[in-house]
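User: Please run a holo structure prediction.
Assistant: Happy to. Please share the sequence and the ligand.
User: Here you go; the ligand is S-adenosylmethionine.
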Amino acid sequence: MSVTPLPPLAGLEPARLDWRCDDTGESAPLSTQFDDVYFSRHDGRAETEHVFVQGNDLPRRLAAWTAERPFVIGETGFGTGLNMLCAWACFDAHAPAGARLHLVSTERYPLRRDDLARALAAWPDLASRAERLIRQWPHPVAGVHRLPLDERVTLDLHFGDAAERLTLLEGQVDAWFLDGFAPSKNPGMWHPELFTAMAAASRPGATFATFTCAGVVKRGLAGVGFAWRKVPGYGRKREMLAGEIAAPPAGVAQVRRQHTPWFSPPPPRPAGHVAVIGAGIAGTSMARALARRGVRVTLLDREAPGAGGSGNRQGVLYVKLAAEANDHSRFYLAGLQYTLRWLEQLDPGHSLWSPSGVLQLAMNEREASRQARFLAAHPLPESLLDGVDAEQASAAAGIDLAHGGLAYPAAGWVRPGALCQFLAAGPGIEYRQAEVAGLAQNDGGWQLALDDGETLAADQVVIANAGAANRFAATAALPLQLVRGQVSQLELPQGAPRLARVVCGGGYVAPALDGMLTFGATFLPNDTDTTLREADHAANLAELERELPALAQALREAGVALEPAACQGRAALRAASPDKSPYAGPVPDVEAWRAAYAVLAKDASRVPAVPGRHHPGLWISAAHGSRGMASAPLCAELIASRICDEPLPLEWPLVDHLHPGRRVIRDLIRNR
Ligand code: SAM
């Protein structure tokens, strides 16, 4: 259903730098790809302040910013991040306490982390901000990378070509930093498509500023409705351009929804008080994302935080990607990268998780050839994903392995139950133990009928209670499948062999945590019983023997009985959608959709120009299956960004891919 196919899932060529002395004798980074400098070491800072910060009148505008949504700055060419760090400093100096700032920047040739650190070392007074950026600096992979810089400031790095990335952006900008090397050195970026995408992603009244006065830039901007004027440039540059756009001209306004009007987002409204139903990883990460934005949150669970599928002592954090890139894989790879950054921010001491690395073994020829096809089709950075042979895998795991496979050096394991408890107890979140028995709309908000007889009023509601997510009338039509899963645990004696990585084959085995080895899990669709079964322990033990025979042998020699009776464990239910991607977004009014789009059953090309109707203020984050650690935190950001009227942390085709109404349209088209 995507109109714009996304570019390949791939790594990006890093920036190639030469550290040259500039005309003041100080060393400054020069791009050998473009033969141009990123900034002048001597006065680069002052130039940024003059051209971009003052050119967009930021000190005055930020001081006056009282809107609930964040002020949004868009940029072409992130480079060393100097412009954005200066904008952040300007925001801190001028904006009122409740204001928030959202930075969106594109970059086709990301700097290597070391180069970034070296470049930013030139500005000691930006050091603490630079340090936060460097710590979270993403892998050089095409796509959107969200970095929560601090409680009030978020940076979305859109890695890839500026025009392409801004065309995929779901969000609107208040002020543009039109950077990038000079048009004479980088004609490929200053392309008509770039200006069209900028106009389409501009708020009415959005401003821009740029160091260049090149004709191609003036014509490009004017052609899409920006008014420009020449203003004094910095230093030796006599002139630069600044200006604004009243509103995108009709032809330029976003046309993408012509093909999928049902996915048009509901109009923004004040966030108000949000009730989040369910305190597993979907609900607790959702509550956290909203609370970080200053939204009042009540988090409800019928049992306790992490009582359901997210309650295991130890769970693995990894994804399984399709050999041929599809939107499902794109989303999960983005989700994995986001979760790793998020966990590092949340728990830098690694008490709730460990980036131990994950090995996904190719246990048979078929899987080996699937992995080989994947690696050939997806040139991703080794720091994120790499092919390893049995010898390399064994060295990494610290135990003999009979197979090679894929290594995810940055992935690992989490303590999901402890993480849910930690998040639920976080600042700005009121946790309440109660089962939500009913959900009714009233006066533009929602009434939650609780099993203790009380009612709770909320302006908006996020349904995040996994298998019970479709128990409410509004969500009853969303297909969900329940899957029973049991993990097994064995207590290890002192001196028992240790696994250094998570190893996955048919199941997974995690490095021991506090002397306990966790492995599993069984996968039984439509089985809703959660009592522990010996047969499931036996199945997990058999998988452990198959995947890690050397470990099993060594454990036996250390006196560990590999028998069901010796195992402890936990069984829980996960919920999955038919296409195995989560539901994350606004809840569609299914009856209204079926009526408005009934014609699709006869002719799928006759798309009615009717925007999709949604239950106002009702959202869902569910169907995370057994990969919730990789998917839920990013889905939480996605929904929180929608609720708070911010740019989204995913390209719009992926936002559509996760839309809870996708099956309704599919079923209509298939005449089901
Ligand atoms: N704003 C930067 C800063 O504060 O350090 C300096 C930007 S530097 C002069 C230009 C940047 O644009 C480089 O990082 C370059 O890799 C990037 N760039 C060049 N062509 C691009 C394109 N087509 N799409 C996105 N970024 C591009």
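The mean pLDDT is 94.
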